Amino acid sequence: MQTYNRLPVSFVRGDGIWLWDDKGDKYFDALAGIAVCGLGHAHPAVSQAVCEQSKQLVHTSNLFRIPHQERLAEKLCAITAMDNVFFSNSGAEANEAALKIVRKYGNQKNIDTPTVIVTENSFHGRTLATLTATGNRQVQAGFEPLVKGFVRVPFNDVDAISHVAANNKKVVAVMVEPIQGEGGVNVPSDDYLNQVREICDQNNWFMILDEIQTGMCRTGHWFAHQHNGIVTDILTVAKSLGNGIPIGACIARGEASQQLQTGNHGSTFGGNPFASAEALAVIDTMQNTDMPAHVTATGQLLQKKLRAALSGIEAVVDVRGKGLMVGIELDRPCTELMTQALEQGLVINVTAQKVIRLLPPLIIDHEGVELLVGKLQTLIKAFAGS
Question: What is the domain partition of the chain in residue ranges?
Fold first, then answer.
């Protein structure tokens, strides 16, 4: 089905931050499969885990204990200070689990339509519930009737959340991305998440943080909300957790962690031995290499170099982000830059029509930063006519 307007290239091989197409041409990958391949392509530890586990056991189903899954849950709970995990196959499924948790919580409180506050320009997935939560009318169009039980407010607007709190007694949770990825790499005020946490506490709401794109060291901490020194009630993660193997996780704490009981939810494939073993290799590698510190330093260098290189180009409105999640906003639509970049041996993404989104593999080094900045400077100057 033609659900994607695919770019005119077929990649057949990868190594670290590099990709090769079927013609033998080499490309700098500054997208990492949309924040998926955090350890880059063909990482030795990941490849070894995939090979070894595929020779032993791939799948049994969640009708049985899965030791790798249990170990993975323990590691995720230790990293996040949370209590338990439901494993899925994707970020959308992880968000579905989060929404089922808060629905169940609301129904137990005899709320006839348990309602979740979500934000404009957000992206939470393409299932019926998650596309309803998503703040993008283009994603929703044609799939009505949408799911009831969502109230939308502007991103980075705490007063709007407080207004809903004063006027809607059916709210049970707030669902928000620490940084909006698909929405244009929108970084909120430094204390935004702290204030959302406070409002949730005051109203006995659950706080849901969608860290599917920002998680797994992408911003310089294991999870972006850790920059704020808070702990959430429900946390969703996917993408870089599997470095290319499909896996998602809904991690919960406290009362939220007790909502789903036997028979309330399930997944045939979620957290199977194969995916769990691979995710364990990802976490072990990131821990052994102190990935958060590396991303912090490299991300600061990347933004500094970008601001200096692009400072004289009038078409550049802003360079923003955190860690290795960076957006370059232009003053005009620039989706054609994705194809133009391919012609220059560079893989990038454009989101929100005019924001170049950079999500390079987390393993990128200083030499890689210099190379990426140089390619982007040439590309953007030519596009802007500077």
Answer: 11-30+290-384, 45-288
Q: Are strands 11-15 and 18-21 parallel, antiparallel or unpaired?
A: antiparallel
Determine the length of the chain.
Answer: 386
Averages of pLDDT over each 10 residues, the chain, 386 residues: 95 98 98 98 98 98 98 98 98 98 97 97 98 95 97 98 97 98 98 98 98 98 98 98 98 98 97 98 98 98 98 96 98 97 98 98 98 98 88
Query: How many CA atoms lie less than 13 Å away from 42 in the CB half-sphere?
Result: 9
Please say whether the beta carbons of 83 and 146 come within 8 A. no
Determine the topology of domain 45-288 in CATH.
Answer: Aspartate Aminotransferase; domain 2 (3.40.640)
Per-residue pLDDT, 386: 58
Which CATH topology does 11-30+290-384 take? Aspartate Aminotransferase, domain 1 (3.90.1150)
